[in-house]
């Protein structure tokens, strides 16, 4: 390893490599839908998995673990995913490598908790395809590829790919990264307007409690879209003020990467009581206290108070 590479914090290097890996995974996801062969199975009740989920996870974990063999990687689709990605790798669908962290200028300000991270400290939460229920129906805009990084139980970095992101009617995809306390890239972060309360929530996993809690924050407008990653991107871009989901269902791989990106852009993601989720390797996978995320972290306490007033 060169001296320069040796000085670059491990977290920066793994986020950079992951952005390239997520670019390729986005190509895999697009290729599967182009082929028309999704090979959908239901892992439970309304809990779908397609060939794209399997192949993208296999690619992400195989590649990342070969580069960083000491990290712990936990993927949504489990440890025994053998779906081949060979025929799904293409050069025509690769998006530009996302903007990398400018290490030379950022390095002076790297917080100690980031600089001190060792490979064996990292737990990587991989959701190869978030928004599968919609993807299986051909609703693709909200599909994301999520790779979150945690140390000591905290979400410390995230990479999110959006394979069907459109620019001027052309599907280009995009890749976004965020490291709280360091920065973010790949997205134009904006605060939502203050004069209107736009709330985003599930499109496909609602029930009466989800609706009651949603009503408690008195939305002016509700955006019902698929995917935890996509809903958080709506917050980062100022298209929604809060993401409210009062139900178990989302899991650690759904929230780890979005939490880091949201935090890096001034927002906050917690359970409905305002408590941060833990991301250590032995944690329970289900986020059973729901999701409350705000574009502006200063609003968070107000939402916690509102939702706490809804009877169980
Ligand atoms: N009841 C559930 N069963 C399985 N996955 C769920 C459930 N609820 C939420 N999820 C996961 O959380 C994401 C956000 O939820 P929603 O889209 O309903 O807002 C979903 O895209 C899905 O991730 P995935 O698509 O990766 O399986
Ligand atoms: Mg799933
Ligand atoms: Mg998911
Ligand atoms: Mg998934």
Model description:
With 312 residues, the chain is of the alpha+beta class. The chain folds into two domains: 3-185, Fructose-1,6-Bisphosphatase, Chain A, domain 1, CATH 3.30.540; 198-308, D-Maltodextrin-Binding Protein, domain 2. Helices cover 32% and strands 21% of the residues. It has helices at 3-7, 10-35, 51-67, 103-106, 112-115, 132-135, 208-216, 228-236, 252-264, 300-308; strands spanning 41-42, 48-49, 72-75, 123-130, 144-151, 154-162, 166-167, 170-171, 174-179, 183-185, 198-201, 221-224, 242-245, 268-270, 291-294. The strands form four sheets. It has a six-stranded mixed beta sheet with strand order 3-4-5-6-9-10, with helices on both faces. A five-stranded mixed beta sheet has the order 12-11-13-15-14, sandwiched between helices. Strand 7 and strand 8 (170-171) form a beta hairpin. The longest helix is centred in the first third of the chain and has 26 residues, at 10-35. The mean pLDDT is 92. Bound molecules: adenosine-2'-5'-diphosphate and magnesium ion (MG) (3 copies). The site of one magnesium ion has 6 residues, from strand 4.
